[in-house]
Amino acid sequence: MATAYYPTPAAANYNMAPTHAPSQRARGYRICDQCGTVETPAVKFRLCGGCMTTQYCSQDCQKVHWPSHRTICQHTAMQVKAAAAGGAQYGGAPDENIAKNLRKFTSAHSALLGWAGFQALKLKRVPAALRQSALVIDLNYQHHSEAHRRFTINGTHVVPRTYVRDPLVTADIQRREERCRANGGIGTLVVIIQCGPTSQVMPVEVDPPSKIGWDERSDWESALRHFVDSGRTDFKPICTGTNGIYYA
């Protein structure tokens, strides 16, 4: 199969020096799990310290949401403890550290991982694919002082969405999906980041493709590898609008 040629790279800053400056993220990456506020440079979100996945725009929203979040949050914490108790090793790091670092990695690269899932499932052309499929990103562990640089890409593959078997995680995905559709979105994209036996599920609430300016790219995996393997967290996807090319 011939490799597609693109006159521009998949990211605005692909060939630039990394800035690591937080960029404004489009809806679908960082949404307050309580009130639905979208993260902007002026509204810096906070992650739940337990699961390191759910995000909030304020401490008040986090407190209000806790009764409904408690079950999945405590479930995640128990999984981390179980991994530590097992004493298994992968890549020279205890499973407990892998789990914690995996959550930090997912948070740091959330924009890139969500974009990769969007491209892998070809949601620009086939929005319904998110209901049947999920993207799995396999990682290798490496020792590094920065959490987001402790992994490199081993491979990616699209799997049936039933790959996620944990009933509590599945219920949480369904809850997000219902909220997304109620707000005019098409549903929840599921990205599974795993390193050995340890995995992190990243649900991404997705707007209708007509509202997403991202170009469809078949070279998405090379961009994913480029930013992850180099430890860059400043990914900015290329978009095409009525006024030409721009970057999100």
Automatic annotation (TrEMBL):
Residue span(s) of domain MYND-type: 32-73
Record GO terms (molecular function): zinc ion binding
Keyword DNA-binding carried by entry: no
Superkingdom per UniProt: Eukaryota
SUPFAM superfamilies: HIT/MYND zinc finger-like
Entry-linked InterPro entries: Znf_MYND (IPR002893)
The keyword rRNA processing belongs to this UniProt entry's keyword annotation: no
Keywords assigned by UniProt, alphabetized: Metal-binding, Zinc, Zinc-finger
Name of the protein in question: MYND-type domain-containing protein
Record organism: Psilocybe cf. subviscida
